[in-house]
Amino acid sequence: QKEVEQNSGPLSVPEGAIASLNCTYSDRGSQSFFWYRQYSGKSPELIMSIYSNGDKEDGRFTAQLNKASQYVSLLIRDSQPSDSATYLCAVNVYNFNKFYFGSGTKLNVKP
Amino acid sequence: EAQVTQNPRYLITVTGKKLTVTCSQNMNHEYMSWYRQDPGLGLRQIYYSMNVEVTDKGDVPEGYKVSRKEKRNFPLILESPSPNQTSLYFCASGLAPTGPYGYTFGSGTRLTVV
User: Fold this and answer.
1) Is the dihedral of CA B103, A33, B54, A43 positive or negative?
2) Which of A103, B22, B82, B106 is the most exposed place for a label (fewest CB within 10 A)?
3) Cα separations (Å) of A106 from A30, A58, A100, A111?
4) Interchain contact A94–B (C-beta under 8 A)
5) What is the DSSP-derived secondary structure letter of residue B73?
6) pLDDT tens sequence across B72-98
7) Residue B17 gets which letter from DSSP?
8) In chain A, residues 17-56 whose CB comes closer than 8 Å to chain B
9) What angle do CA A9, A10, A11 make, to 5 degrees?
10) pLDDT-based confidence at B60, cuts 50/70/90?
């Protein structure tokens, strides 16, 4: 079982819609959670982090964390074609100094 | 500008020819790490360093070496590259390996071993 699981996609949404990206993790010791965006051929770029259960909003992005269900999600409101990228979920396990990445979900936003 | 600089961006080499990929950060970060990224497998950690002269293996260290003689630099060495090391490599740095911080990634090195 992988430490971090993501649906590889592609997830296709029309411009202006809400894109919902999901991630599950296996280690209950995970304490910090991150979403990175990666354009094709480019490096991952940190867009959101969340540490507590609930929602965290930053502009058009909302990260949601449910530790009981071991589930993290990222909502992108008013999706734009420029949001088309692969989104990587990452979790941080403090006890083991480990940082695990999912393999990413490819998002396509159609004009 | 705060950044992680990797060189080269692209590299084609032959099996067995030693190579070094350089990584340098200007953010005074304690923690640095190397990842490889392959389709369907995501980012896998090769080696990491908690501070100068302190390095440790990640999940896929075989065939790689690293050193951390200066805080800002963390080169990745392939002593005898093989075709299965063809991949996209990223160097990353952060304030700490854990905690509420993310990592800053370099621009990547696409390595092809023939």
Assistant:
1) negative
2) B82
3) 24, 21, 18, 16
4) yes
5) B
6) 999 999 999 999 999 999 999 988 777
7) -
8) 31-32, 34, 36, 41-46, 49, 51
9) 95
10) very high
